[in-house]
Specification:
The structure is a homodimer.
Chain A (H helix, E strand, L loop, with lengths): L4 H8 L3 H8 L7 H14 L5 H8 L4 E6 L5 H16 L3 E6 L4 H9 L8 E5 L17 E4 L9 E5 L1 H14 L5 E6 L7 H16 L8 E3 L5 H14 L5 E4 L2 H13 L9 E3 L16 E3 L2 H17 L9 E4 L2 E3 L7
Helix pairs in contact in A: 1-2, 1-3, 5-11, 7-8, 9-10
Chain A binds a DNA duplex through helix 2 and helix 4.
Chain lengths: 336, 336
DNA sequence: GCGCGTTTCTGCAACGTTGTAGTCTCAACC
DNA sequence: GGTTGAGACTACAACGTTGCAGAAACGCGC
């Protein structure tokens, strides 16, 4: 049987409420009493029962991180950053994967699990602007990523369009003029894919390079394997190209592998840049240029915003949109 | 305010206990009553309060996964597998990272967070046999990995020694005779590093190849970067070698990169095999041979064992040791 | 010495759920 | 016709904590 407030109170010779007060830093307690109670807590090894506390106070100290897929290195690294930021604030993190599309996302969002947590960090994948009303509840929530723009919740995002524009411009600045884009979602506007395609087109336009739809390679799921398969199909089409902007690193790495199998030199024949700056890009052959979206900054900002919402549940401050810094990281795959 | 049993009971015209009984599949309920209650639940959108349930029943439906580091692809993939296995059994997973060594591990294990969960999957990193007594409590727990052998808890492990022996034997069977081992922890016996080194030595002995300590490369932390740095130092020593067994894939990938920078051909000059079968190994250049430890099987077995312990808290069945299958995956880095 | 405010501490109720121990009804049995 | 037993349901008391209201003790000014 676990130690409870009752046991501590009995040993210290005070009421359980006084023990509770000591634990919760209630100011009006005599130093002598505080010491007695703290000694009893130490002696018994008392640990508060978080279920009871959560039931009574409505706060559990746990937040939920909803991401598509831990196998994707970007999300694994983001989850790592979120957990470190959360730990620094005394929070635990429940990770939920949602690889199953819109229906599953809504199910998880509305499921009983979410009752256990104080707030949600939600990396939106399948939901769109038209689903924003589903989020219009009182649960503290911060959105990561870019699906819903004018939703009712705070929003922390990398600068997708600007980052992708900078990546494309980087290849153009090297003199490449047939730059392919890997990872488009045809028809999409508000998601990462749509925004990154937009940035790609902006960069082309600024340089006066004509946009060629034949250079836009659709990839629905953004894993290594998908990038590899898409590149294999693209090469089979025989479209000439001398640059490649991968909308994330994993796809770019998969594609690099296929290009090299096909005898293409990187960066000689094709200069390549990815997006996300996952660790692997430093060790691939060749190492992969990329956009560093400052995952740590995303994570810290998101946790801070969420904590603010958790601590001021009645605040009707309007939803905020924060964008984090990014920078172009040049490596061997786009060496001059 | 959230909907409670009281609201449902009022609407359905029954007692709250009956609603509770319906929810918990108590058998003796008239179909008509059940329907009324279910209709009321649907109408109100009732969700049970998990804190209250957990307080009353002592079960939260959440398990904890303690791992060193999500940035390490092996653990990210293992976490993914665990979460899928847990989800299939209706459990949520709280992931805690413990990069901080023994003191931090014990702190987390004993912290109040652990009160919230029904059981713990613990991928032991820093704790040793001498710490086994710290685990001698009533919390359901399954150990992953290999630190503590005769501890009081169930234990699911990959076959470290056998896997590593098979990996080494694979390179020997290709005719390599100067096979280096990457990732040793000098002095360690019971950890993965010690066991894998043991398997390496067994394979050498079976083939009658002399064990040369100069070929054993120590690496304390098993990330890409550490593998790369260790290989750089090893190459600087000028020790001749024609094969490399990496004790995990990340290190092997970092080392491959460095070897190729140094002009070595893989597998021509050095045949390489790793351990873990992370996704990245399929797309590296060259693709990396490895040992597939069946992470899915590890995860499923561990979750099953844990659930068994959770459901039979009083059972004093002795601790079990289960080892999962593994297989050698030959790829380009050790092509014939 | 009295009133008033502050400090220090306590008792009680409540959070929403489930386990235990019932009550009541009705059918089956001798 | 009374006993038995199962079925269907309910009342009540917990689980361990914290918010609220209040009691006792104390200090201060007049």
């Amino acid at each position: 049987m676990a130690i409870t407030l009752h046991d501590v109170a009995r040993l210290a010779g005070v009421s359980i409420k006084t023990v509770s007060n000591v634990i919760n830093d209630y100011p009006h307690i005599r130093p002598a009493t505080r010491e007695k109670v703290e000694a009893a807590i130490d002696e018994l090894g008392y640990q508060p029962n978080l279920s009871a506390r959560s039931l009574r106070s409505g706060r559990s100290g746990v937040i939920s991180l909803l991401i598509p897929d831990l196998r994707n290195a970007y999300f694994a690294e983001l989850a790592d950053a979120v957990m470190r930021a959360a730990r620094a604030k005394g929070l635990s993190v429940i990770i939920e994967q949602m690889p199953g599309g819109k229906k599953e996302e809504l199910e998880i969002l509305r499921g009983p699990r979410m009752q256990l947590v104080d707030g949600i960090l939600y990396s939106v994948l399948a939901l769109g602007e038209e689903d924003a009303h589903h989020l219009d509840n009182s649960m503290p929530m911060v959105l990561l990523g870019d699906r819903i723009f004018h939703g009712p919740k705070d929003h922390v995002t990398m600068q997708n369009t600007e980052g992708s524009r900078a990546a494309t411009e980087h290849l153009l600045s090297l003199g490449r003029r047939r730059v392919a884009a890997l990872g488009a979602h045809p028809g999409e506007v508000v998601g990462s894919a749509g925004l990154r395609l937009d940035g790609y087109r902006q960069a082309l336009a600024e340089r006066g390079v004509e946009y060629d739809p034949a250079l836009v390679i659709p990839v629905m799921s953004w894993h290594r394997q998908d990038g590899a398969e898409a590149m294999r199909a693209f090469l089979a089409e025989g479209v000439a190209f001398d640059g490649l902007v991968g909308f994330n690193d994993s796809m770019a790495l998969g594609a690099m592998r296929v290009m090299q199998e096909a005898g293409l030199q990187i960066p000689g024949d094709v200069a390549v840049i990815g997006f996300d700056d996952i660790d692997e890009t430093r060790y691939s052959i060749p190492s992969l240029s990329t956009i560093d979206p400052s995952k740590d900054q995303i994570a810290e900002t998101a946790v801070d915003l969420l904590l603010e919402r958790i601590e001021n549940p009645d605040s009707d401050a309007p939803a905020r949109d924060l964008a984090t810094e990014f920078r172009v990281v040049q490596r061997e795959s786009s060496a001059n």
